[in-house]
Amino acid sequence: MIPVPTLRRVFGGGPFAEVGEPSVAVADDRSGLVAVGGDLGSLQWSGSGTAAAGWSGHRIGVYEPDGLRCRHLLRSSMPVRSLAFHPVLPLLAVGTGSYDGGHCFEGELLLVHLDTGEAVSALQHQREVLDLAWLSWTELRVVLAPPDDWVDPEAWQQGHTAVVTRADWGAVGTRGVRAEEVDAPVAPYARPDRAPRARRLLGDLAGAVGLDRSVRRRVWAVAGLPDGRVLAALDGVLVECWLPSGQRQWAVGDEQGGRQLLPAADGVSLWTNAGRRVRRTRTGWETSDPQVARVALDTGRVLGTVSAGEYAVLVAGGGKRLVLRPVEDSGGAERRLLMFEPDGTATKGPEVRGFDLFNHAFPMRRSSRPYVLVGTDPQWAHRGMWVAAVDADGTLRPLFPHSWVPQEHHVGGPAVEIGESLVYAGSVHEPQGPSPGSSYVVRRSLDGEVLWEHRSDHRATALDSDGGTVCVADNSGALTALDAATGAVLWRTALTVGGVPACALSLAVAPPGRLLLGTVDGRVLEYGRPAEAVAPSGAGPRVTSGSRPAP
């Protein structure tokens, strides 16, 4: 097995980065530990939602007082509502929950063992846990939301308060708190907003050790420059540039932040598009204006913008032209690519019909021309999708069906062009939810032949290649390197920073010999890639578990 690359440096790190935006935080006077519940956000934006399945950004972090090092980081399937340290035992009680969008308030009472980091889900049945407090070393007061709002519309302003007693809370097992123990009368209950206090507490703790507390989230795109600088687009920042020294050279702020990075034809600037905010106002729903900007690489100065008149994604491979694909709901109207010449002249490209973020996302790296996914069904743009290329004269040329199994519907994902072939990630749509092995990375020649496929249980968030190795990040936090010639697994690792789990949202193979990862928690990681990690493109067939060559 080829060795895993080494983490060289972290850009944009800071205290409590692992938990994202905090919702609740408490400090334990006895141990000095700090517990934080937070949210890293979703893996979805207007241009892509293919990686969101199976993802939860809710986190529980436990931090040590010395340097605020993260001791434990746990994923939660639901928002964290309340935290309480046990007065004697190394135990943290965590209340989670949310409304399911239908009628039920679901959640968990988690008991986190602080010596091991293991968590036990203690309630017999799921209930949203709104508040927790230890009354003594044997008694835990629990406030639960009503089971549902099916009958009582006042359920949102009510709670059930119960006191659960155990001689040894450290011995409580899974579903060890029975339903009858939390069966208590309902009473008015005002749900507290604990986030402001959590932000103040974390800011004070960071300041006390000489650190600055700032929330960075979701690095949607990364790129490396030949001079060693690193570019990133993330929430709240249209694009930023880091020097090889580790200092941030410049940043372009934005309310939403950048989502894509695309080198401009002049070689000294890049294109980026801002995210789109949708918010409710007194007069209805309001969306922010679309923004596509060209930014100078040396200073970060915005050199100009283009207006597509609607929200659009950047399509790579246009050469001197900037190619955009509108993503607004077309309502059945004709949809065409938009082509912008270097002088700003706009022309309509070929018709590509509709776009939806769960099917048509197909961000391509290292492309020699624009590639898009287009549907063939007259009524539904996502049905019967084909991979299509846009030729130099603006003609849309279908290449091959996106799914190589006729009876399966495949959704889009990140891609890279290697020679006369495409390597892309995707997944098989399953109405009942994804099953093991339903996600994949596949290499196909431009006539549609499947050269190899690699199966996975988790949706890919990003991929790139140097021609010999294909690097893939997925939403479980794994990073995998595949032999570009055979699809064999060269190495696979669970992404960690300082021994704490992380998850990459973006990825770029960059010169000289670097692998850049943008994480969901707002950091940019630079890895050195061992020379032996680059497999020769003519390597013979090798098959490992999870990969197989085409029949």
- What is the typical, i.e. mean, pLDDT? 91
In CATH terms, the superfamily of the largest domain is YVTN repeat-like/Quinoprotein amine dehydrogenase
Main sheet record = 7 strands, mixed
Basic shape: globular
- CA-CA gap between termini: 25 Å
Number of structural domains: 2
| Strand count | 46
Strand content range: over 45%
Indicate the percent of residues in helices: under 10%
Note the total helix count: 1
CATH C-level of the largest domain: Mainly Beta
Uncertain segments = 531-551
CATH architecture of the largest domain: 7 Propeller
Over the alpha carbons, how many angstroms does the gyration radius reach? 25 Å
Helix/strand/pairing category: mainly beta
Query: Could you please say which CATH topology of the largest domain applies here?
Result: Methylamine Dehydrogenase, Chain H
Give a quick rundown of the structure.
The chain is an all-beta fold and 551 residues long. It contains one helix and 46 strands. Strands 28, 32, 33, 34, 35, 36 and 46 form a seven-stranded mixed sheet that branches.
